[in-house]
Please model this.
Amino acid sequence: MIDWLLQTMTNSKKNPITKLDDLGELLIKRMTDSEKKLVVELLPLFEANNIAEAGKLFTENYPRNGYSDSFDRWYSVHIWKKHRGSVEQKLRQYDFIGTEKTLSELNVSKLHWASFWFDQRLQHYKEELLNEWKPSIEGRLQLYDFASAENILLKLGLTDMNWSKKRLQYYKEKQFNKLKSSIEKKLQRYDFVSARKIFSEFGAKDSHWFEDKLHYYREKHLTELKSLIEKKLRQYNFTEAERILSRSDLIDKTWFEQRLQYYKEKQLKVLIKDKLCQYDFIGADKISNALDRQSYETIKAKYVKQWFEQHVYEDGRAYVLDEQQVLAVLNDNKNTIVTARAGSGKTRTLVAKVVYLAAKYNIKPDELLVFVFNKKASDEINERLEKITVDGKQIFYNPEIATTFHAFARRIVYSICGENEKYGKILAEEKAYFIQAVIKNIPKRKVYQFFRSEYFQIKRDRFASEQEYFEALRNSKYETLDGNVVKSEAEKIISDYLFEHGITYYYENEYYLNSAYSICQEANRKRLYELKNKFKQESIKPDFYLKDYDIPWEHWAINGDESLNKIADINKCGIIGDYDEYKAKMIWKRWFYQKSWIDNGKPAGKYALQIKKMRPLIETTRNFENREEFEAKIEKILQEHGINKPKLPEEELIKKVWNSQVKRFSKMIMQFIDRAQQQFFDDTSELRQRVECFNGDDRTKVFLEIGLRCYFDYHNYLAGKLPKEKLITKITRNNKEGILDFRQYGIDFNLLLKRAIDIVNGGEHEDVESLLSLKKYILVDEYQDFSKLFLKMILSVRDVCPESKLFVVGDDWQAINRFAGSDTEYFKRFTDYFSEDSRKLEITTNYRCDRRIVENARTFMRNSLGENGNFSANSGHNGEVALIDPTKTYIDYKDDKDNIYKKAMMASEGRNPSKAAVQYIKTVAEIIKGNKDKQKILLLHRNNDTSFWFIDLLAFYNRLCSAVVEKKFMHEDEFKEKVEILTMHRAKGLEADVVIILEADDGIIPTYHQDTHLFEIFGETEQIVLDDQKNLFYVAITRAKEKLYILHNKNPKGRNGFIEFVNYGEWQQVLLYGACFWL
Model:
């Protein structure tokens, strides 16, 4: 109501309301008393034009009802109507700034219609004023006097007018278009500073055009500068190139430095190549410092290779090296290790390194030291060096550059220091006999207890994989008191019991089923034949055969009533093969030994009679708690079969065990002494502590105690602290008896090395220091066979000649001498032991073997050891890899030709050989026949003895020779010249056209001897032994140049242990492809 009242009072076209009656009767009726009272009070104030008092009165009565806004609007209208005339007057005078100031003071912004009126009037008068000034402003713009024109517009307040903006922009653009040509000329002359100055002074808005042009000409100028710099750099005018760079800030200094470095290196390479073309390797080395070593060696390798091919000859043939060999030869790091795989030319590289240093770097023979591990290797290197000619001239005459560690130590101790009288002769080949003499002084009862003790139980956590653990279980061997090797601990206990009670037995003696047919009843003959074919067996072999009682003995690997679940581990590891099949065989063997099928009334032959004479079978099972319990069970069973022999007197047993085991035990003690000398040569107290603190099985404890005593006795005898008269002993060698006097010996090779190390470290002998200080290069062959003792020798020599460079070559895949104290830790951690300027190189191309052989070897090592070492072949696929089962070889004793093999394998005591032995010799002979045109045939075996017919390798070789000669495959002289038989260990370093690996069977490859645990204090574990045997197999197969034959009896139990040994990944697929076959 009040709002309406105010509007009415201010907007009425009539005279302003001055009385209440003027509001009308209706309005008065609608007003409250308080409102009427307010109107009555306001009317006089409005009439007196006292607006301020009216507003104050109004606000006091209605402070919160929103009517104050209405009053403000009313008040603004009132003020505007009062001053509108004065505003109009200022606009007519073009006082736009004063007008806007007045309008701001009036504060009529809430009156939109007033603002609209003002804007229209303001625009009208500005246009009117602008029209008056347009000619003047246009004239100034035409003269491009933008400053004056803008000043006028600013003073007149007309800068915001559209016409002003457009005309100003128009003339600026017009002027800029005229100046573009001038700017472009500056840019074309690459005067970027002047161009930008013109552009900035003009103040044009078209910056895109200028920036695009500027970018274009900068890039063009940069390209020209770079081209010019490149030209100067190609001319190797580095000073001029740097001058050009200094005159321009466009060129990236990083780019320039890179190009400068490139051309400097290029210039240097040209200079280096000039030197290298003349084979001036020393001159090239001197100026090669600016190049990184790898780049320089890459360039140099080409010329070193050429130099060898064109100037170096061996036996009239050019000395050719491959790229990897060349890099090894020219390498000049302070410490370098070269991994050289089998057949990759390791010795060739070593010889080349010596020739290269001597011929091109003037290194004298007495400045070189080449260490090898045996005299044969040192002789080979020295002989090859003597045959080398450079430019037709021999450079080495009777060289003694290569030496064994022991020969080097002997030179220091004996020749230089003159300690001959102090030590006497060096104990070497006679060491085994010496140790036999030493151990005579230990209580023999302890030796008896040791061989009788139970073996350490193989545990799963000692192997990397479950498969390898099961291999160990399946292939474990146990040695009996009388020296036989059996397959389980229970069989050892049985054998020991029979031995201790003087009961003669055969272990796994073979009886052929064909002999049984002649005495078989007609009704059972068919069944016997079916069983023979079902189980694929030509013979029956009881675990034991008691000779004097004709009693066969089977020790079952499981109990007859045992469920499959209880023997899961045994079944899984493959000891018995398939459980159901094994139980079926048990039933068949029991039926066979009952002999209910025997006696058809016909006379029995010699071998049939042996079967006929067999008494009822003795059966034992594996469920026993301890040895005493099992022996009590054995005694009871034997008594039931009428055998009641008392145990032999202990003294007699001790003597018999000593006589049968002394050689083997002395070898074990020698291993203990060798390992202890290698690892604890500088701290025997640690050795004693390890032995005394050993907390393992009793058998190992006994051995360590004996070994420790023998270790100290051995050294005391050598040192003369114990009377050497006790060491005069009888020995048998080559079937001849003789007396060996050990009093002449005072030191062995390990002690010799230790003494030499002490002399070198002591620094007391000037002659030794003067000898070693000359050494500039130390080269080591077969570094994978390093031990702590050899490492100490190298470190001692390096202390005297610290600037000498160490270059070692080896193959960790051929590390097979751990039993002698070597440790591949020194190979694998070479850069830790020799960290200064250390480098690793590889020589991986095999030049010996056919590609198929190399692929087999590489696959086997990569997958079995989990190593990704490189190994490649250089030859083609003309060779042969054959996996042969000798048991499949057909034998016909009615054929006189096959009887030749039987005759050759006849045992000395006249016993007929087993069929397996005859099959074996025939298989090998037939292979030799098929390869008689080859120059060299090498037969390799894991051990010194064969398991077929229990003969050693030499005996088998002689019988094989007899068969081959009688079959007229070769003459005897030809056979002995071409065919050789060795253990795998002894074959290292050799090669042959044809290699035949004998008995690659379970228990042989791999073999797990329980004696492994005896050397645990030296770091020996079952896993390490397995890995060593993998290395040994790798060594064996890489001896073959053209053909590799692996003789392996396929396991009739279904578990192919050898194939599992090699079948890690793709080996089996590789092995059985192409020429591979089963005979």
